[in-house]
Amino acid sequence: MEINTDDVAQKCLNAISEKLHSLKKLNIIVIGKSGVGKSTLINSLFRGNFAEVGLGRPVTDKIRKIEKKDYPLAVYDTPGFELSSGQQGKVKDEIIELINKGMAAQDINEAIHCIWYCINVGGNRTFDSSEIEWIKSLTESNKVFKVPIIVVLTQSCPKKKAYEMKRLVEAENLDIVSVVPVLAQDMDFDEEYVARAFGLDTLVDVMGETLPDELQDTFQNLQKVNLEAKKRRAHAAVATAVTASFGEGFAPIPFADAALLVPTQVGMIASITVIFGLEVNKSILTAIVSSTVGAGGATVLGRTIVANIFKLIPGVGSGVGGMISGSTAALITTALGEAYIQLMVLLYKGEIKEEDLYSEKGTNMIKRIFKDELKKKR
Ligand SMILES: Nc1nc2c(ncn2[C@@H]2O[C@H](COP(=O)(O)OP(=O)(O)OP(=O)(O)O)[C@@H](O)[C@H]2O)c(=O)[nH]1
Ligand SMILES: [Mg+2]
After folding, report:
1. How far apart are CA 161 and CA 179, in angstroms?
2. Do residues 336 and 264 make contact, with C-beta atoms less than 8 angstroms apart?
3. Which residues make up the environment of ion ligand 2, defined by Cβ < 5 Å?
4. Ligand 1 binding pocket includes 36 (Cβ within 6 Å)
5. Residue 345: what pLDDT?
6. Which ligand is nearest to the CA of 31?
7. Which of 31, 39, 189 maximizes ligand 1 atoms within 8 Å of its Cβ, making it the mutation to test the pocket?
8. Ligand 1: does its nearest atom lie under 6 Å from the Cβ of 195?
9. Confidence class of residue 57 from pLDDT cuts 50, 70 and 90?
10. Rounded CA gap, 148 and 128, in Å?
Protein backbone atom coordinates (compact mmCIF):
# COMPACT_ATOMS: atom_id res chain seq x y z
CA MET A 1 0.00 0.00 0.00
CA GLU A 2 1.24 3.42 -0.84
CA ILE A 3 0.52 6.68 0.82
CA ASN A 4 -1.60 9.00 -1.22
CA THR A 5 0.47 12.11 -0.54
CA ASP A 6 -2.12 14.42 -1.95
CA ASP A 7 -4.75 13.01 0.34
CA VAL A 8 -2.51 13.22 3.40
CA ALA A 9 -1.51 16.80 2.57
CA GLN A 10 -5.18 17.70 2.32
CA LYS A 11 -5.86 16.06 5.67
CA CYS A 12 -3.06 18.11 7.23
CA LEU A 13 -4.45 21.25 5.68
CA ASN A 14 -7.91 20.55 7.06
CA ALA A 15 -6.49 19.78 10.49
CA ILE A 16 -4.52 23.06 10.48
CA SER A 17 -7.58 25.06 9.58
CA GLU A 18 -9.66 23.28 12.21
CA LYS A 19 -7.03 23.83 14.84
CA LEU A 20 -6.70 27.52 13.97
CA HIS A 21 -10.43 28.03 14.25
CA SER A 22 -10.64 26.21 17.54
CA LEU A 23 -7.93 28.29 19.22
CA LYS A 24 -9.22 29.96 22.34
CA LYS A 25 -9.23 33.72 22.21
CA LEU A 26 -6.70 35.62 24.27
CA ASN A 27 -7.94 38.85 25.86
CA ILE A 28 -5.47 41.39 27.17
CA ILE A 29 -5.96 44.84 28.66
CA VAL A 30 -3.14 47.27 27.90
CA ILE A 31 -3.03 50.34 30.09
CA GLY A 32 -0.58 53.19 30.18
CA LYS A 33 -0.38 56.91 29.71
CA SER A 34 -0.71 58.38 26.27
CA GLY A 35 2.44 57.94 24.21
CA VAL A 36 4.20 55.41 26.46
CA GLY A 37 4.37 52.93 23.59
CA LYS A 38 1.33 50.66 23.97
CA SER A 39 0.56 50.42 20.26
CA THR A 40 4.24 49.96 19.43
CA LEU A 41 4.49 47.16 21.99
CA ILE A 42 1.42 45.37 20.64
CA ASN A 43 2.57 45.65 17.03
CA SER A 44 6.07 44.51 17.87
CA LEU A 45 5.03 41.44 19.82
CA PHE A 46 2.09 40.07 17.84
CA ARG A 47 2.20 39.01 14.22
CA GLY A 48 0.37 40.87 11.48
CA ASN A 49 0.64 44.50 12.58
CA PHE A 50 -2.30 43.92 14.80
CA ALA A 51 -2.78 47.30 16.47
CA GLU A 52 -2.41 49.10 13.16
CA VAL A 53 -4.71 47.09 10.99
CA GLY A 54 -6.99 45.65 13.66
CA LEU A 55 -10.38 47.23 13.98
CA GLY A 56 -10.81 49.21 17.15
CA ARG A 57 -14.13 50.17 18.58
CA PRO A 58 -14.95 51.91 21.84
CA VAL A 59 -16.39 49.52 24.39
CA THR A 60 -16.52 52.04 27.19
CA ASP A 61 -15.80 55.73 27.43
CA LYS A 62 -12.05 55.26 27.75
CA ILE A 63 -11.43 51.78 26.45
CA ARG A 64 -11.16 50.58 22.89
CA LYS A 65 -11.29 46.95 21.86
CA ILE A 66 -9.04 45.92 18.97
CA GLU A 67 -9.88 42.77 17.06
CA LYS A 68 -9.19 41.23 13.68
CA LYS A 69 -11.09 38.65 11.72
CA ASP A 70 -9.84 35.07 12.22
CA TYR A 71 -7.28 36.25 14.74
CA PRO A 72 -7.46 34.81 18.26
CA LEU A 73 -6.70 38.00 20.14
CA ALA A 74 -8.56 40.97 21.54
CA VAL A 75 -6.66 43.87 23.02
CA TYR A 76 -8.42 46.38 25.20
CA ASP A 77 -6.43 49.55 24.71
CA THR A 78 -6.61 52.80 26.62
CA PRO A 79 -5.44 55.32 24.01
CA GLY A 80 -4.72 58.79 25.23
CA PHE A 81 -5.02 57.75 28.86
CA GLU A 82 -4.15 60.53 31.33
CA LEU A 83 -3.58 60.03 34.99
CA SER A 84 -5.41 63.19 35.96
CA SER A 85 -7.41 62.71 39.11
CA GLY A 86 -10.65 63.02 37.17
CA GLN A 87 -9.83 60.10 34.87
CA GLN A 88 -8.04 57.80 37.29
CA GLY A 89 -11.05 56.41 39.08
CA LYS A 90 -13.11 56.23 35.93
CA VAL A 91 -10.64 54.12 33.97
CA LYS A 92 -10.15 51.80 36.89
CA ASP A 93 -13.90 51.32 37.26
CA GLU A 94 -14.23 50.60 33.56
CA ILE A 95 -11.45 48.01 33.72
CA ILE A 96 -12.99 46.26 36.69
CA GLU A 97 -16.32 46.32 34.87
CA LEU A 98 -14.70 44.62 31.87
CA ILE A 99 -13.11 41.97 34.05
CA ASN A 100 -16.41 41.40 35.79
CA LYS A 101 -18.30 40.97 32.55
CA GLY A 102 -15.69 38.56 31.23
CA MET A 103 -15.96 36.45 34.37
CA ALA A 104 -19.72 36.44 34.27
CA ALA A 105 -19.71 35.02 30.74
CA GLN A 106 -18.05 31.85 32.10
CA ASP A 107 -16.33 31.37 28.78
CA ILE A 108 -12.58 31.39 28.38
CA ASN A 109 -12.99 33.29 25.11
CA GLU A 110 -14.61 36.17 26.96
CA ALA A 111 -12.50 36.33 30.11
CA ILE A 112 -9.73 38.88 30.60
CA HIS A 113 -6.53 36.86 30.89
CA CYS A 114 -3.92 39.43 31.58
CA ILE A 115 -3.24 43.11 32.15
CA TRP A 116 -0.15 44.91 30.94
CA TYR A 117 0.45 48.14 32.76
CA CYS A 118 2.95 50.17 30.73
CA ILE A 119 5.27 52.75 32.23
CA ASN A 120 7.56 54.73 29.97
CA VAL A 121 11.16 54.66 31.12
CA GLY A 122 12.43 57.22 28.66
CA GLY A 123 9.86 59.86 29.47
CA ASN A 124 10.01 59.51 33.22
CA ARG A 125 12.67 61.83 34.46
CA THR A 126 11.76 60.88 37.97
CA PHE A 127 9.76 58.04 39.30
CA ASP A 128 6.07 58.88 39.21
CA SER A 129 4.52 57.80 42.50
CA SER A 130 0.97 58.63 41.42
CA GLU A 131 1.28 55.82 38.90
CA ILE A 132 2.24 53.37 41.63
CA GLU A 133 -0.73 54.54 43.67
CA TRP A 134 -2.98 53.88 40.72
CA ILE A 135 -1.61 50.36 40.21
CA LYS A 136 -2.11 49.74 43.92
CA SER A 137 -5.75 50.66 43.73
CA LEU A 138 -6.14 48.45 40.67
CA THR A 139 -4.55 45.46 42.43
CA GLU A 140 -6.85 46.11 45.37
CA SER A 141 -9.96 45.86 43.19
CA ASN A 142 -8.41 42.95 41.34
CA LYS A 143 -8.08 40.87 44.52
CA VAL A 144 -11.31 39.01 43.85
CA PHE A 145 -10.52 38.35 40.21
CA LYS A 146 -6.79 37.69 40.37
CA VAL A 147 -6.18 38.67 36.77
CA PRO A 148 -2.38 38.56 36.34
CA ILE A 149 -0.91 42.04 36.07
CA ILE A 150 2.45 42.55 34.41
CA VAL A 151 4.19 45.92 34.61
CA VAL A 152 5.94 46.57 31.31
CA LEU A 153 8.62 49.23 31.35
CA THR A 154 8.39 50.58 27.82
CA GLN A 155 11.04 52.46 25.84
CA SER A 156 13.58 51.02 28.26
CA CYS A 157 16.46 53.19 27.32
CA PRO A 158 18.97 53.65 28.80
CA LYS A 159 18.97 50.10 30.10
CA LYS A 160 20.54 51.07 33.37
CA LYS A 161 17.70 53.42 34.15
CA ALA A 162 15.20 50.74 33.18
CA TYR A 163 16.67 48.25 35.62
CA GLU A 164 16.77 50.88 38.31
CA MET A 165 13.06 51.49 37.74
CA LYS A 166 12.42 47.77 37.82
CA ARG A 167 14.00 47.63 41.26
CA LEU A 168 11.99 50.61 42.45
CA VAL A 169 8.69 49.13 41.27
CA GLU A 170 9.55 45.75 42.76
CA ALA A 171 10.35 47.41 46.07
CA GLU A 172 6.72 48.50 46.26
CA ASN A 173 5.68 44.87 46.76
CA LEU A 174 2.73 45.23 44.47
CA ASP A 175 0.40 42.33 43.86
CA ILE A 176 1.72 41.79 40.33
CA VAL A 177 3.34 38.97 38.39
CA SER A 178 6.47 40.67 37.17
CA VAL A 179 8.17 43.88 36.04
CA VAL A 180 9.59 43.52 32.54
CA PRO A 181 11.79 46.16 30.87
CA VAL A 182 11.25 46.28 27.11
CA LEU A 183 12.56 48.25 24.20
CA ALA A 184 10.12 47.13 21.53
CA GLN A 185 11.90 48.76 18.60
CA ASP A 186 15.48 49.87 18.04
CA MET A 187 15.94 53.48 19.03
CA ASP A 188 18.13 55.76 16.91
CA PHE A 189 19.87 58.59 18.66
CA ASP A 190 22.14 59.67 15.89
CA GLU A 191 24.12 57.89 13.23
CA GLU A 192 26.60 56.76 15.84
CA TYR A 193 24.34 55.30 18.43
CA VAL A 194 21.42 52.94 18.11
CA ALA A 195 19.88 51.28 21.15
CA ARG A 196 18.90 47.74 20.21
CA ALA A 197 15.45 46.40 20.95
CA PHE A 198 15.31 43.91 23.82
CA GLY A 199 13.01 42.36 26.38
CA LEU A 200 10.11 41.20 24.21
CA ASP A 201 11.35 37.60 24.47
CA THR A 202 11.28 37.89 28.27
CA LEU A 203 7.75 39.25 28.17
CA VAL A 204 6.77 36.21 26.09
CA ASP A 205 8.35 33.87 28.65
CA VAL A 206 6.57 35.61 31.51
CA MET A 207 3.28 35.33 29.62
CA GLY A 208 4.01 31.66 28.98
CA GLU A 209 4.36 31.07 32.70
CA THR A 210 1.26 33.10 33.46
CA LEU A 211 -1.34 31.91 30.97
CA PRO A 212 -3.37 28.74 31.46
CA ASP A 213 -2.60 25.74 29.27
CA GLU A 214 -5.67 26.30 27.08
CA LEU A 215 -4.14 29.56 25.87
CA GLN A 216 -0.58 28.45 25.24
CA ASP A 217 -1.09 27.44 21.61
CA THR A 218 -2.95 30.68 21.00
CA PHE A 219 -0.20 32.77 22.51
CA GLN A 220 2.57 31.02 20.60
CA ASN A 221 0.57 31.37 17.42
CA LEU A 222 0.31 35.12 17.99
CA GLN A 223 3.74 36.07 19.26
CA LYS A 224 6.47 36.72 16.71
CA VAL A 225 9.49 37.51 18.86
CA ASN A 226 10.52 34.39 20.73
CA LEU A 227 11.51 31.45 18.55
CA GLU A 228 12.78 29.39 21.47
CA ALA A 229 9.37 29.56 23.15
CA LYS A 230 7.73 28.35 19.95
CA LYS A 231 10.22 25.49 19.67
CA ARG A 232 9.61 24.42 23.26
CA ARG A 233 5.88 24.31 22.70
CA ALA A 234 6.35 22.46 19.41
CA HIS A 235 8.59 19.84 21.04
CA ALA A 236 5.89 19.33 23.63
CA ALA A 237 3.39 18.74 20.82
CA VAL A 238 5.71 16.09 19.36
CA ALA A 239 6.08 14.42 22.75
CA THR A 240 2.31 14.24 23.13
CA ALA A 241 1.91 12.73 19.68
CA VAL A 242 4.72 10.26 20.30
CA THR A 243 3.10 9.02 23.48
CA ALA A 244 -0.17 8.65 21.66
CA SER A 245 1.32 6.85 18.68
CA PHE A 246 3.27 4.49 20.91
CA GLY A 247 0.11 3.61 22.76
CA GLU A 248 -1.90 3.19 19.61
CA GLY A 249 0.64 0.85 18.17
CA PHE A 250 0.45 -0.01 14.55
CA ALA A 251 -0.68 -2.86 12.49
CA PRO A 252 2.35 -5.16 12.70
CA ILE A 253 4.93 -5.27 9.93
CA PRO A 254 5.58 -5.03 7.02
CA PHE A 255 7.16 -1.67 7.60
CA ALA A 256 7.02 -0.76 3.98
CA ASP A 257 3.29 -0.59 4.40
CA ALA A 258 3.28 3.10 4.58
CA ALA A 259 -0.02 3.69 6.29
CA LEU A 260 1.94 5.61 8.85
CA LEU A 261 0.36 8.96 8.85
CA VAL A 262 -2.40 8.18 11.23
CA PRO A 263 -4.49 11.02 12.58
CA THR A 264 -2.02 11.44 15.43
CA GLN A 265 0.70 12.55 13.06
CA VAL A 266 -1.65 14.75 11.09
CA GLY A 267 -2.72 16.36 14.35
CA MET A 268 0.90 16.86 15.32
CA ILE A 269 1.71 18.60 12.03
CA ALA A 270 -1.30 20.83 12.58
CA SER A 271 -0.26 21.72 16.14
CA ILE A 272 3.29 22.61 15.11
CA THR A 273 2.08 24.73 12.20
CA VAL A 274 -0.31 26.63 14.43
CA ILE A 275 2.39 27.22 17.07
CA PHE A 276 4.69 28.74 14.46
CA GLY A 277 1.88 30.92 13.14
CA LEU A 278 3.01 30.41 9.56
CA GLU A 279 0.86 30.11 6.48
CA VAL A 280 1.39 26.68 5.02
CA ASN A 281 -0.22 25.69 1.75
CA LYS A 282 -0.95 22.35 0.20
CA SER A 283 2.12 22.32 -2.04
CA ILE A 284 4.42 22.68 0.97
CA LEU A 285 2.65 19.90 2.81
CA THR A 286 2.69 17.66 -0.24
CA ALA A 287 6.42 18.24 -0.63
CA ILE A 288 7.01 17.41 3.00
CA VAL A 289 4.82 14.34 3.09
CA SER A 290 6.21 12.89 -0.13
CA SER A 291 9.78 13.52 0.97
CA THR A 292 9.34 11.86 4.34
CA VAL A 293 6.76 9.20 4.98
CA GLY A 294 5.30 9.41 1.50
CA ALA A 295 5.26 6.95 -1.35
CA GLY A 296 8.71 7.55 -2.78
CA GLY A 297 10.54 7.17 0.47
CA ALA A 298 8.51 4.38 1.97
CA THR A 299 10.67 1.41 1.13
CA VAL A 300 13.92 3.06 2.04
CA LEU A 301 12.28 4.29 5.13
CA GLY A 302 11.07 0.86 6.10
CA ARG A 303 14.58 -0.50 5.93
CA THR A 304 16.05 2.40 7.86
CA ILE A 305 13.52 1.92 10.59
CA VAL A 306 14.05 -1.81 10.85
CA ALA A 307 17.78 -1.26 11.09
CA ASN A 308 17.25 1.32 13.77
CA ILE A 309 14.92 -0.79 15.80
CA PHE A 310 17.41 -3.62 15.91
CA LYS A 311 20.04 -1.22 17.10
CA LEU A 312 17.77 0.30 19.71
CA ILE A 313 16.24 -2.75 21.26
CA PRO A 314 18.65 -5.56 22.07
CA GLY A 315 17.42 -9.06 21.53
CA VAL A 316 14.46 -8.19 19.37
CA GLY A 317 13.67 -10.82 16.80
CA SER A 318 11.61 -10.34 13.69
CA GLY A 319 8.44 -11.69 15.18
CA VAL A 320 7.78 -9.37 18.11
CA GLY A 321 5.09 -7.45 16.29
CA GLY A 322 3.42 -5.35 18.95
CA MET A 323 6.61 -4.18 20.57
CA ILE A 324 8.29 -3.26 17.34
CA SER A 325 5.32 -1.54 15.89
CA GLY A 326 4.80 0.62 18.95
CA SER A 327 8.44 1.70 18.98
CA THR A 328 8.43 2.16 15.25
CA ALA A 329 5.42 4.39 15.40
CA ALA A 330 7.05 6.43 18.12
CA LEU A 331 10.27 6.64 16.14
CA ILE A 332 8.60 7.80 12.96
CA THR A 333 6.41 10.26 14.78
CA THR A 334 9.41 11.75 16.54
CA ALA A 335 11.45 12.00 13.37
CA LEU A 336 8.59 13.50 11.41
CA GLY A 337 7.78 15.99 14.17
CA GLU A 338 11.37 17.07 14.70
CA ALA A 339 12.03 17.35 10.97
CA TYR A 340 8.90 19.42 10.54
CA ILE A 341 9.98 21.71 13.39
CA GLN A 342 13.34 22.20 11.67
CA LEU A 343 11.59 23.17 8.47
CA MET A 344 9.28 25.57 10.29
CA VAL A 345 12.30 27.20 11.94
CA LEU A 346 13.98 27.68 8.56
CA LEU A 347 10.81 29.17 7.10
CA TYR A 348 10.25 31.34 10.16
CA LYS A 349 13.78 32.75 9.98
CA GLY A 350 13.40 33.25 6.24
CA GLU A 351 16.42 31.02 5.65
CA ILE A 352 14.43 29.06 3.13
CA LYS A 353 11.59 30.27 0.98
CA GLU A 354 8.37 28.46 0.49
CA GLU A 355 9.08 27.79 -3.17
CA ASP A 356 12.51 26.30 -2.33
CA LEU A 357 10.67 23.36 -0.85
CA TYR A 358 9.19 22.30 -4.18
CA SER A 359 12.51 22.11 -5.97
CA GLU A 360 14.59 18.97 -6.11
CA LYS A 361 17.12 20.61 -3.87
CA GLY A 362 14.34 21.37 -1.40
CA THR A 363 12.90 17.87 -1.34
CA ASN A 364 16.38 16.42 -0.97
CA MET A 365 16.92 18.67 2.00
CA ILE A 366 13.67 17.52 3.59
CA LYS A 367 14.67 13.89 3.01
CA ARG A 368 18.05 14.50 4.58
CA ILE A 369 16.59 16.23 7.65
CA PHE A 370 14.06 13.46 8.12
CA LYS A 371 16.63 10.70 7.76
CA ASP A 372 18.98 12.43 10.18
CA GLU A 373 16.16 12.60 12.68
CA LEU A 374 15.40 8.91 12.18
CA LYS A 375 19.00 7.98 12.83
CA LYS A 376 19.25 9.97 16.02
CA LYS A 377 19.56 7.92 19.15
CA ARG A 378 17.11 9.06 21.75
N1 LIG B 1 12.28 53.50 18.90
C2 LIG B 1 11.21 53.23 19.64
N3 LIG B 1 10.18 54.09 19.67
C4 LIG B 1 9.11 53.80 20.42
C5 LIG B 1 9.05 52.62 21.20
N6 LIG B 1 7.86 52.60 21.84
C7 LIG B 1 7.22 53.72 21.47
N8 LIG B 1 7.95 54.45 20.62
C9 LIG B 1 7.57 55.73 19.99
O10 LIG B 1 6.84 56.52 20.90
C11 LIG B 1 5.73 57.12 20.29
C12 LIG B 1 4.42 56.72 20.96
O13 LIG B 1 4.25 55.34 20.84
P14 LIG B 1 2.81 54.66 20.74
O15 LIG B 1 3.04 53.21 20.63
O16 LIG B 1 1.98 55.30 19.72
O17 LIG B 1 2.22 55.01 22.17
P18 LIG B 1 0.77 54.68 22.76
O19 LIG B 1 0.96 54.30 24.16
O20 LIG B 1 0.07 53.72 21.89
O21 LIG B 1 0.05 56.10 22.70
P22 LIG B 1 -1.52 56.43 22.72
O23 LIG B 1 -2.19 55.51 21.76
O24 LIG B 1 -1.61 57.86 22.34
O25 LIG B 1 -1.99 56.24 24.12
C26 LIG B 1 5.78 56.70 18.82
O27 LIG B 1 6.41 57.73 18.09
C28 LIG B 1 6.63 55.47 18.84
O29 LIG B 1 7.33 55.30 17.64
C30 LIG B 1 10.18 51.73 21.15
O31 LIG B 1 10.22 50.65 21.78
N32 LIG B 1 11.22 52.09 20.36
MG1 LIG C 1 -1.78 53.78 20.88
Report:
1. 14
2. no
3. 38-39, 79
4. yes
5. 96
6. 1
7. 39
8. no
9. confident
10. 22
Q: How confident is the model at residue 378 (pLDDT cuts 50, 70, 90)?
A: low
pLDDT in tens, 338-355: 999 999 999 999 999 888
Half-sphere exposure of 10 (CA within 13 A, CB side): 5
Query: What is the pLDDT confidence band of residue 263, given thresholds at 50, 70 and 90?
Result: confident
Nearest Cα neighbor of 217 from 168, 159, 160, 275 is: 275
pLDDT band at 56 (very low <50, low <70, confident <90, very high): confident
The CATH class given to the 24-222 domain equals alpha beta
40 CB within 6 A, ligand 1:
yes
Ordered by start, the domain boundaries in the chain are 24-222, 226-375
Find out whether the beta carbon of 122 lies less than 6 Å from any atom of ligand 1.
no
Nearest atom (ligand 1) to Cα of 182: 31
- Ligand 1 atom with least separation from CA of 43: 15
DSSP, residue by residue, 261-308 = --HHHHHHHHHHHHHHT----HHHHHHHHHHTTSGGGHHHHHHHHHHH
Q: Could you tell me the distance, in angstroms and rounded to a whole number, from the CA of residue 39 to the centre of ligand 2?
A: 4
Element (H, E) at 29: strand 26-32
Q: Tell me, what DSSP letter sits at residue 365?
A: H
